[in-house]
Amino acid sequence: MVAGVAGGVLAAAGGTIALRMSRSEADYRAIAGDGSPPLVLNWKGLAVMSLVANRIIAPTADMPSVQETMTARRIDLELSYGSAKLQSDMKASLGYLEILPALSGDVRPFSTLPADEQTDTLRSMSASAGADRAIYMALKFFSGLFYYTDDRSWPSIDYVGPSVPEKVFEGGNRIANLALNQEVVQ
After folding, report:
1. Rounded to an integer, what distance in angstroms lies between the CA atom of residue 43 and that of residue 49?
2. CB-based contacts of 122: which residues, under 8 Å, 6+ apart?
3. Are 150 and 75 in contact (CB under 8 A)?
């Protein structure tokens, strides 16, 4: 009988934790921003990627935001050109990050943590060994690459631009291409 009661308590506790860890698609859409549905990631993945990029880049007032540079959406677009393995790994990594606080006893998803706690979580991942560090390094790489390839971010790093004329590839992952695709969908 004690085992039955204990099992019931554990099941109720697990249900409570699951409810606190879950968020609606509307919650994730609010974080990710308006626009067309993601190509590879789901709304949760796009929202978590947006938050990660914002914490890693930490733009100051004189820099464009990660939303303005469409960093997470450009990462999603780039993933659409990648292998199924890359897509799967990125989805799994972002899903893992969303529940990572629960592995330490915090029943709030990453996306609901205050900014300083999100930064602390990412900092802990960067200082750890194994999978957490690998995930952090991949997310940092993608965030930096797609944020700083937007020419509006260049003044913040004193970069004046390439010394050769830009070669435009209309099917590429430039922000102008993505912004154009967003206008068509809306």
Report:
1. 10
2. 52, 55, 56, 136, 139
3. no
75 pLDDT more than 60: yes
Task: Answer yes or no: is pLDDT of 166 > 80.
Answer: no
Q: How many CA atoms lie within 13 A of 116 on its CB side?
A: 0
Going by the DSSP 8-state scheme, the letter that residue 156 receives in this structure is: G
Per-residue DSSP letters for 31-54? HH-SSSPPSSS-HHHHHHHHHHHH
C-alpha dihedral (156, 162, 168, 171), degrees to nearest 10: -50
pLDDT bracket for residue 65 (50, 70, 90): very high
- How far, in Å, CA of 38 to CA of 80, rounded? 10
Q: Round to whole Å and give the CA distance between 2 and 30.
A: 45
d(Cα 70, Cα 176) in Å, to the nearest integer? Answer: 10
* Helix residue ranges, H only, the chain: 2-21, 25-32, 43-57, 71-81, 84-103, 115-127, 131-148, 175-185
Q: How confident is the model at residue 13 (pLDDT cuts 50, 70, 90)?
A: very low
